[in-house]
Design a protein that fits this description.
This protein is mainly α. The chain has helices at residues 2-13, 45-71, 77-92, 100-147, 156-176, 181-230, 236-252, 258-305, 313-330, 335-361, 367-395, 398-424, and strands spanning 18-20, 25-30, 33-39. It has five domains: 2-122, no CATH class; 125-209; 214-278, no CATH class; 279-360, no CATH class; 362-427. Helix content is 80%, strand content 4%. It has a three-stranded antiparallel sheet with strand order 1-2-3, covered by helices on one side.
Length: 427
Amino acid sequence: MAQLMSGEREAVTEQHWGRVDEDGTVWVLTADGERAVGSYPGATPEAALAYFARKYAELAGQVGLLEQRIAAGQLSGAQAESAVQRLAETVRTAHVVGDLTALETRLEALTPLAQARRAESELAAREARERAVVQRTVLVEEAEALAAPEPDRISWKASGDRLRELFEDWKRLQREARLDRHTEDELWKRFSHARTMFDRKRRQYFGALDEQRAQVRATKERLITRAEELSRSTDWAATAMAFRELMTEWKAAGRASRKEDDALWARFRAAQDAFFAARSAVNDQVESEFRDNLAVKERLLAEAEALLPVRDPQTARAALRDIQDRWDAAGKVPRSDLGRIEGRLRAVEQAVRGAEQERWSRSNPQARARAQDAVDQLESTIAALRQRLATARAGGSERAIRDAEQALQAREQWLEQARRALTDFGG
């Protein structure tokens, strides 16, 4: 630019581009001939030409600056084109002295650059609009997908939060890029419809849920009332069965809201606990009585087992009958001990019956054979019981050991009697 201005000053100085006539009017030489650009009264022709040459230099500087800005891409295509047109009009009517044709030529050279910039800007704008349409469409399709499932398959919290995020994204994209009115309206209608559908489904779902929960609450209130009535019952077995049926109904009733359901369950459970606590207290008392009965029967068992081995069946039968009467009068024992003590008493009863049968069978021709069979069976049984006792000792179960020892002791006594009977037959 400095070279240009220097050359222009030289040219002006050499009066290549302008002159001053006798009345002080300053003229510039253009491609179409001379054109008056003004006057500079009271100055020499050289000073007048120098003044208008400086104004030309300023105009040339504007052209140079525009060249730089267009080359650097600082202006959009429309801005560049408008700037070129505006500056070209200024050059055509400028009150300056200098090579205006050169400036016009330079501006003409900028026109295709500005047009290219405009084409690039329009392409970029079109691509930006297309990207914006794609972004909005993706956003709309996600909103539609969130609203599409059946109400019972929608995750309301997560989906609702996501829809709010999508709405904020919509507003941001709207600020960043405007679409044509038709496309904008169509996409917004779809997006708005998806949000409306989601809200409508949510209202319907939670309305139905509230109604369902109200029915559940009414059902459980009824079950609680029934449970509270049963909690005062002393018909232990029937009431326990009734509570099991109530629990089945409770599970089938469904759930109210978490807070309500927890409170309802606490009331129902309190009624249950009241009944079962009362039953446990009675059972504990009964169990205590049963343990006392067990002690009595343990002593009676000692008396009964002292009858073995049976030497006088008639005397043993009379003593056993007295023990049995006192046994029945003693009452019930804990269920866990029932089988054990009843089994021991039955063993004594069987021994006494066996002795009686043995006494009767001595006159029977086939008695010896039966006595031998009894000995053989008892020996086989005793062998199995010894194996059972060994297994129990290896397992370390005191109860199993005790039961096996008692059973073995009874069979050994029976075997002794059976062998004695066999001896009586000469065996």
